[in-house]
Amino acid sequence: MCGYYRYKVTISYDGTNYGGWQKQPNTNSIQEEIECVLSKMLKEDVIITASGRTDAKVHALGQVFHFDSNKQLEENNWKKALNSLLPRDIRVQSVKAVHQDFHARFDAVEKRYDYLITDDVDNPFVENYMAKDTKQLDVAYMQECANVFIGTYDFTSFTSNKIDPRKPRVKTISKLEVVKEGRNIRMIFVGTGFLRYMVRMISQTLIEAGKQRLTKEEIKDMLDSKDKHACRHKAPPQGLYLVHVRYKDDK
User: Fold this and answer.
1) Are strands 131-132 and 59-69 parallel, antiparallel or unpaired?
2) Is residue 55 classed as helix, strand or coil in its secondary structure?
3) What is the rounded CA–CA span in Å between residue 103 and residue 250?
4) Are 72 and 42 spatial neighbours (Cβ–Cβ below 8 Å)?
5) Distance between CA atoms of 99 and 120, rounded to whole angstroms?
6) Cα separations (Å) of 199 from 2, 149, 172?
7) CA separation (Å) from 234 to 94, 117, 202, 207, 239?
8) How many whole angstroms separate alpha carbon 94 and alpha carbon 79?
9) Which of 18, 118, 173, 177 has the fewest CB atoms within 10 Å of its CB?
């Protein structure tokens, strides 16, 4: 595209009614909704590139994508135009003009995901936004076990069986905090990147530890084994949020 402008967009979305970020047959997706709106606005096919995918029913507070356009608009006008056409469960938070070699996926240096679980199991208003469990969880022990994952490791044991074998499995988790918030527990993951299902699998592993069903030693053995069959725990998707994507030029 000659004479184009590249835009970085930060969006939030409620993933309840979507089959995930990525376009796919037989279900609606966040990507498809946004591309349809942009294509309608610009009267040409538009492809957007995200920092990464989220799965069905997973939410985002700060997903990032980029797109190219011949049209130059004020950043706030882009935001208003997009939000006027997008479904109410997808909201643009900001649009910024960036240099043409910016890449939403490859330039990301850090991501934060939060996982939420509650014992408020009879509350219908958290049904789509938190995992639920009646068991009292030992938060202090969950944190002790969470510390096992902090550092740079091969996370083969904590990812999808279907992951491309050519994809690197080594990731760095710089922060993993387990925080009690009233009747809820929040697990905060910060790292360079995460494999498919990695956060959900680690989250459920820590939940099992909080129920005294797994020990720290067993969890460490899972991690060290680098075996995709070692961990069979995976938390429900609705408790997962992509909170923030950080880039090296962010202030």
Assistant:
1) unpaired
2) strand
3) 14
4) no
5) 47
6) 40, 11, 13
7) 33, 13, 7, 10, 11
8) 6
9) 177
Contacts of 8 (CB under 8 A, 6+ apart): 64, 65, 66, 95, 96, 97, 98, 102, 104
pLDDT tens sequence across 130-182: 999 999 999 999 999 999 999 999 999 999 877 777 788 999 999 999 999 99
pLDDT tens digits for 30-44? 999 999 999 999 999
Average pLDDT, the chain: 95
pLDDT digits (tens, 9 = 90+) for 74-128: 999 999 999 999 999 999 999 999 999 999 999 999 999 999 999 999 999 999 9
- C-alpha dihedral, 209 to 52 to 240 to 8, nearest 10°: 140
- Neighbour-count burial of 186, counting CB atoms closer than 10 A to its CB (0-12 exposed, 13-18 middle, 19+ buried): middle
Is residue 55 flagged as an active site residue?
yes
- Extract the tokens encoding 146: 């969470």
Residue in 55, 119, 138, 154 annotated catalytic: 55
157 contacts 223 by C-beta, under 8 angstroms: yes
pLDDT recorded at residue 32: 97
